[in-house]
Amino acid sequence: MPTAAKVIAALCLAFVAWVVSGLSKQVLGLLDTGNLVLVSVVVGAVCGWSILGRRADRGELGYGNAIGVGLTAMAMVVFWVMLAVCVKESFDVAVSRRFHDPMKVIYGLLPIAKKYGQVFLNTDILIWLGAGGAVSGILAHMAGKKWPGR
């Protein structure tokens, strides 16, 4: 059931994911990142709708808890986007027949995740993730308080 808190949370987290994916493309120095931006925006919207929007639905969180839930939702966006990117790159390596065993494909995820995980140590990206998650939580809480669902 769509509510104002879910819509605001989905839009806010999708926007932050869009900005962070653009910043990560600059840090990595990649021109062709495939569908990184699209995957980031979709995962941000889904996590905003399901994680943040569901908890901020009636505006009963309070500002402190709203910030915490917003940061949790942002952490889940980072996790799912990193997992999707690492699985895609690992699959590309497996298709090029560099791995001869299915378990080596799974073990190959760790160096790829380390390479992409170091991108998030950039100060600009950390600030956008932290502030974006906190502001998204507060805005979703305010929307849930102003227009309570159900």
Note the main attributes of this structure.
single chain, 6 helices, 150 residues, mainly alpha
Radius of gyration: 17 Å
Annotation, overall tally of beta strands = 0
Strand content: under 5%
Average of pLDDT: 87
Overall helicity: over 70%
Transmembrane segments: 34-52, 64-83, 125-144
Keywords: Membrane, Transmembrane, Transmembrane helix
InterPro entries: TrgA
Organism: Pseudooceanicola nitratireducens
Give an overview in words.
The protein has helices at 4-28, 36-55, 63-95, 102-107, 109-117, 123-146. It is elongated, with a radius of gyration of 17 Å. The protein is mainly alpha-helical. It has one domain. Helix 1 (4-28) packs antiparallel against helix 2. It contains six helices and no strands. It comes from Pseudooceanicola nitratireducens. This is Tellurium resistance protein.
Helices and strands in order:
Layout: H1 4-28, H2 36-55, H3 63-95, H4 102-107, H5 109-117, H6 123-146
Concise synopsis of the structure shown:
The chain is mainly alpha-helical. The protein has helices spanning 4-28, 36-55, 63-95, 102-107, 109-117, 123-146.
